[in-house]
Amino acid sequence: MFQKPYSEYLRFQAPILIVMAIVGLLRLGLSIAGQPDSIVRFVSVSAVGFAGIVYYGVRVRPSGFGTYRHLLPLVFNQGLVANGTAILGIGLAVMGMPNIYDVTEFRGPFATPQTTPTQHALAHMFIGTTVGVLLGWLMSSIVMAIFGRPRR
């Protein structure tokens, strides 16, 4: 992908993907265990994702890893982990294990109380992995333009 093996992308971002998966599963586990949403909401996959977006923008060029186009697969992989965790949580809620991933207030900006879990999961699958990734790539590109000085 962009003249790099896919494994190089995974190797470059492995720590962030691992932390993102741990935080996502911790959030899910705490919620299923009965912790209140007011507490669980602070275990944030979005915060880890934002940190990853900034990290990629700052480190990709100086490390010699690549350029703007190489940010896209990194942000895409990150989106797969985040959205996959959310879809897992929504699926578990449908199977009778209510959790924070399918609480109405966390269903996104366009959701209504009538939004079904299936619609919510499909939004993660299609909108989260396209629009979300493109917005993340844009943010990471802006960070790279400002802070990602080339290697000397």
How would you characterize the overall build of this protein?
The chain is an all-alpha fold and 152 residues long. The protein has one domain. The chain is built from six helices and no strands. Helix 3 packs across helix 6 and helix 4 packs antiparallel against helix 5. It is elongated, with a radius of gyration of 17 Å. The model has no long low-confidence stretch (mean pLDDT 94).
Question: Which features would summarize this protein structure in a list?
Answer:
mainly alpha
Compact overview of the structure:
The chain is mainly α. The protein contains six helices and no strands. Helix 3 runs antiparallel to helix 4, helix 3 crosses helix 6 and helix 4 packs antiparallel against helix 5.
Count the domains.
1
Largest sheet: none
Query: What is the number of beta strands?
Result: 0
Percent range of helical residues:
55-70%
Mean pLDDT: 94
Q: Point out poorly predicted stretches.
A: none
Order of SSEs: HHHHHH
Distance between the termini: 25 Å
Structural class: mainly alpha
Quote the beta fraction: under 5%
Please work out how many helical segments DSSP would assign.
6
Name the shape in a single word: elongated
- The Rg value, from CA coordinates, equals 17 Å
Task: Give the helices and strands, then pairings.
Layout: H1 6-32, H2 37-40, H3 45-59, H4 68-94, H5 117-128, H6 131-147
